[in-house]
Amino acid sequence: MATDPSSNMQADLPSDFSIKLYKYFKCVILVGKNVMTKVVQQIYASVPESMNGTVHLKDYLKGELKWKESDMRSVFTKLYIHLLETEVMSTSFEIDITLACRLLPKVFKDVYGKLSNECKKSIDDIKHMRNKLTHAMEPEESIDMKSEICKLQNVYENIYNGVGEAVDYDFSEDSDATKNILTMILGSTQIEDLELYQKNLEEFKKEVSHRLLIEGRKELQDYYSKLRVVNPCTWMLQGDRDIEKDNVSKYYIEKIYTPLKIKSKCRGAECEIDTKNLLTTTKLKRKNRYILPNCLLLNGLAGCGKTSLCRYILHDWRTKGKEIDALEDMNFVFLVEARSVRSKNLKEILTEQMLPSTLEILKNEKIDLIPMLLDMRVLFLIDGFDEASKDTKNVIKDIFARFNKKSEHRILITTRPEYLEEVGILMEVHNFEYITVKICGFDENGIKSFTDKVFKEALHNKPEKYVKEENWKFFKYLNGRGRILNNQLYLPLTLALLIHLWIHDKEKKRINSVTNCTTLYFELFSLCKDKVMERLIFKEKHVDMKTINGVLLFIGQIAWNMMSKNHVIINSEEKKKIEDECKRKHVEENEIMSAFLECEFDDNQDSKEIRNYSFLHKVQMEYLAAEFLADRVKSGQLEEVKGLKSWHGYYQVIVFLVGHLALSSPMELNRQSDLIFDLVDKAEIRGIDFEFWWKFLVEAGKNPKVAKIIAHDRLPETSWDLVYNETNENLVSGLELLGTIPVKIESIKIEVDNSMDPYDIKDMYKLMKDLRSHLRHRNKQNPLLTELHFWRHYNDGRCSEHSDDFVKTLRPWGHLTNLTGSLGDQEEGNGLLLNFCFNLKTIRVRLCTLKAVKNLHISLKRIYRTVRKLRITLDMSPDSVDPANFPSLTFKGDLEIHIPRVKDDNKEWVVATVKSLSQGRGCDHLELDNSELSYKSVVYLLKKLTNVIIDKLTVGTLFEITMNMRLEVEEMENDTHIHVNWLG
C-alpha cells in the first residue's frame, strides 16, 4: 500500500501520482459534493411546493418558477441534466459543488436570503477551493494540506450551521462526520481506492469548467509572457540588423520593476500602500466595518508607472509568484489595454482577443463563457481609461455591469487624473464599491534603485566596473543639473528616457540641453535621427535631415488624426499612408518606422516578413502630434488646431505644443500666445489648477510674456488656496508659481491636511524660504495676508515636528492672519508670533512644553488687539508641569482649551491649569476628549469651574455615562450656565 510522501510508495502507482493532490481532491470534491448535496436536499425539502422534496426539480422549476427548457439547459449542463428528473431526496442524487452554488441564489432565493454573511462567504469559498484544485494540477504548484483542511473544516461547518439555522434543521451529526472524514484523509498513509480516485479524477478533468481553467490560464500565461519587455524606447536607438538578430537590450519587468509610491486614504488618513498589499489592505468603510472594495481606481500622471504596475501584476500571476497577496487566488487575470481593444463588448473581447484558442478547443461544448467566469475569481486589469475609444468604453461598461455582484471579482483600472471624475461616475452608476489610489512614481530610494537596475540591463554586455561608473556619473547628474526637471524625475518613463539619452549621448551635450519634457523628447528624437542618418549613409542611401524631419512630421500628423478620432493603434490604412510618404520622399520605410515606432515582427517566419507598428506610449504620440501642430501653427495653417471644438483630455498636447513653440523661439511663442490660451480655454483648464499652470510655464521656458498672462489673466486675482490633501496636491506647484511669476494677490492660504507632515512634502519648506527674495516688494506697507494650516502638527500628538520654521519663512513678505499648527520652544523673550503677526485673528496651536506656553503669553502681549479666537491643545503630562507656573493668556477674543487623555487622578490639575491660563477673563470652551474621567470627576469639574467656564464643557470618556447621569448633569447646567457636550 502507498504511504505518506515521506515513505516509499507502492511500485504500481502512476509516475505522476501526487498524494497531496489525491488528498486535496478527496477533501474538496468528494467531501464537498457530499456536504452540498445534503444542504441542497434539506433546503429543497423546506420549500412547501416541493412536497418535502418529492417533486422532481424539473416540475418545480417549470411549475413554480416558470423556467423554460432553455433556462434549465443554461444551468444544468450535459453532465447534470439527469438531475432534473432524479428524486432529490434519494441516495442517487449527488450534486456538484459548482452547480449547487449556482442553484442556491437562483432557485432558492428566499432561503439564500436568510443565510448569514459568514455562510454565504463559505459557499463562495468552497466553490473557489474547487476551482483551485485545477491550479493544484498545474506544474510547480504546492499545497499546504494542513492549512487547506483546516480551512475546509471551518467552511463546511459554517455552511452546515448557516443552512441549518435558515431551514430549521440540525446538521450536527453530518458536521461531526465530515470533520472525522477530513481528519482521516489527512492522516491516511495508504491508497486503498486508487482506481476509484483515478475514475473520479478523469471525470473531473472532463468537466468544462476544469478544461476552461486549464486551457484558458495556459493561453493567457503564454500571451502575458510576451508582455515582459517594458522598454520605453526598444527600437528608437537600434538598427534593423540589431532587431533581427535580437541584439536589442530588453528590459524585463521582473528585472527592472521598482516599487512605486502608492498612496490612498486608509481609515481616514493618507497612507502609503505596499505593492504586495495592493489587493488586500485597501479597505473601504461601510456601516462601521471595513470591506474590500470591488474596484481600485489607480490614477497618476503620464509616465508615472501605471502600465508597468499592470505588467508586474501579470508577471506575478503568470509565474505563480508570491509578490502580491491574494493574486494567486485569482482563477483568471484579464488585461484590457484600452489602446488595444478591437471589440465592441465583453463577449467579443473574451472570445476574439483573450481566449480564442481555448474556445476553439472547447467549441463542441457550446459553453456560455461569461456565466462560467462569474462562478470563478476574476481580476480585470483595465489599463489606460484615458486612452479608451467609444467601443472600449462600452467594453468597460459591460465589465462593470456583469462583474459587480460579488466581492470575489476585482477590477483594477488605471487612468490619468483628468479622467477620474468620468470613471467615478461610471462606477457609481453600476453600484461599484471603489476607492481611489494614487500612483506617485518613485520616491528618492526608488529613483536610485530603478537607475541601478536599468543601467545593469542596458549595459549588460559591459564590464561591471564601467556600469557602476556610468551609473554613479548619471546619479551625480540627477542631483546636480538634472534637478531642473524637478518632479519629472520621479516619473519612471521620464527617468528611463533620460537614462537612454545619457547612455547614447557620449559627449553629454544633448543631456545638458534638457530643461523640461519637450527638450528631453526633442534631444532623444534628435539623437535617433542622427542614428538613422548614420545607418543610411552606411548603406549608401543618401537622405538629408530635412527629409527625415518631414517624414517625422507626417508621423506626427498621423498621431494627431488618430488622437482626434480617439484612436491609438496604427491600423493598416494609416500604416500605408506612412509607407507611401516614405516612398514619395525616397526613404526606406522600415528604416524610418522601426526607428521611431514600436515594431513587432510576424511570428510566421515562412511567410513574407510583416511588421506591425504602434506608438511606444501615449506620451510619445502626444509629443509627435504637438510637433506637427506647432509646424502648422508657425506656417499659419490653423485648420487642425481650430477645427477641434473641445480640447478636454488634450492637456499634454497643449503643454508639448507650448514647448515646441518655445523651442522654435521665444518670439514665436509670444506671437502665438493668444492661440495657445484659446486652446487652454477649450480644454476647460481651471484657474486653480496650479499644477497645470506650473507645467505649462516650465515647458514655455518660463517665457516672461506667458508668465505675465498666467499671473494676471489666468490665476485667481485676489486670493490663492494652496491645499495638499487626497484629491489635491497643487500646493508645491502653487509655491513654484508664486516664486516665479508677477502675481498681485492680496491673500494666500497654505493648508496641509491631517494625512501629511508638511516637512515631508518635497521642496515645500525650501520654496517657502526662497520666497523672501522673490517677494521682497511685499512688506508691512504691502503685505500678503497669509493663512497657515498644518493639521497634522495640530491634531497628532505623535508628531514631534513643530510649525515654527514655516512661520519664520513668512518674514517679511507674509502677514499671518490664521494659524493652525504646533509651536515649539523659542528663545526666551522672543515669542514666535511676537514681531510681525499684528494681523493674526485665529490661532489653533498644540503646545507640548511650559516654555511654549510662556512664549505664546509673551506674543499675546504684543498682538492681543487683533486675536479673536485662541484654541490651545495642551499635549503634555500633568506630572511634568506645575499649574501655578502657567501664565495667563490675555487677549480680547474667545479662549478654548483642549486637554486630551485626562484621568480621574488629574482632575485637580485640570482645574488649576484652566484657572491659571484663563485668569481674569475665563475660558469659553474646555474640551477633554479621549479621557478616562468617571461621572463623579465630571461633576467635580463642573462645580470647581462654575465661574471659570463661560459657555461649554465637552467630554469624551471611556467610562459609560448612563441616561440618569446625563439628566443629572442637565440639571446642573441650569445652575452653572455651562452647556455639557458628550462625545460618542
Plain-language structure description:
Among the domains are: 19-206, no CATH class; 216-441, P-loop containing nucleotide triphosphate hydrolases (Rossmann fold, 3-Layer(aba) Sandwich). Helices cover 48% and strands 12% of the residues. It has an eleven-stranded mixed beta sheet with strand order 13-12-14-15-16-17-18-19-20-21-22. The chain has 984 residues and is α/β, with parallel strands linked by helices. Helix 1 packs antiparallel against helix 8 and helix 23 (545-564) packs antiparallel against helix 24 (572-584). A hairpin with a 2-residue loop joins strand 12 (719-725) and strand 13.
Could you provide a short overview of the structure?
This protein is α/β, with parallel strands linked by helices and 984 residues long. It has an 11-stranded mixed beta sheet with strand order 13-12-14-15-16-17-18-19-20-21-22.
Strand tally: 22
Q: What is the CATH level 1 assignment of the domain at 216-441?
A: Alpha Beta
Rounded to an integer in angstroms, the radius of gyration calculated over CA atoms is 35 Å
* Count of helical regions: 40
Unreliable spans are 1-11, 234-248, 602-608
Which structural class matches the secondary elements?
alpha/beta
Largest sheet: 11 strands, mixed
Q: Which homologous superfamily in CATH is the superfamily of the domain at 216-441?
A: P-loop containing nucleotide triphosphate hydrolases
Helical residues, percent: 40-55%
CATH architecture of the domain at 216-441: 3-Layer(aba) Sandwich
| CATH fold description of the domain at 216-441 | Rossmann fold
Strand order of the largest sheet: 13-12-14-15-16-17-18-19-20-21-22
Mean pLDDT: 86
Tell me the fraction of residues in β-strands, as a range.
5-15%
Shape: flat
- Report how far the terminal alpha carbons are from each other: 66 Å
